[in-house]
Amino acid sequence: MSIYDIPVHTIKNEEKTLEPFKGKVMLIVNTASKCGFTPQYEGLQSLYEKYKDKGLAVLGFPCNQFGAQEPGTSDEIQEFCQLNFGVNFPLFAKVDVNGENAHPLFKHVTKEAPGLLGSKAIKWNFTKFLVDRDGNVIKRFAPTDKPETIEKHIQELL
């Protein structure tokens, strides 16, 4: 199955796939509103604004699996992101990224780009996956990797 065939739900709970992002470089991120890394929304938005016209799509997937740091509803999450960080890149419905109920997208990206020592588990919020224009998962970035440090990798793919 291609990454573009995986069903996802938008923040407004509309079922879609990633097909509209075919041919774009995607940065897929599991996000949270009440995390120490939450200010990374600003850097993600900055990357999106700088490169969206060149083919970058930043995709935010809220997750409440780490310290219950994303307790809000979809409307609350979207409002928080827009008001506090001016986020206008696509946000999706809250997902699990680990375990039995992990979303198929995160099962796919963790298989394609495992973490340290081959671990498939995501360790915390704001783990990032860089996907090339052909849908290949190129690289995984840790929560501590700030968006601006990923910029050179994005530029190479654009």
TrEMBL record:
The lineage of its organism: Bacteria, Bacillati, Bacillota, Bacilli, Bacillales. Belongs to the glutathione peroxidase family. One of its GO terms (molecular function) is glutathione peroxidase activity. InterPro entries: Glutathione_peroxidase, GPX_AS, GPX_CS, Thioredoxin-like_sf. Keywords: Oxidoreductase, Peroxidase. PANTHER family: GLUTATHIONE PEROXIDASE. The keyword Oxidoreductase applies. The keyword Oxidoreductase applies. This is Glutathione peroxidase.
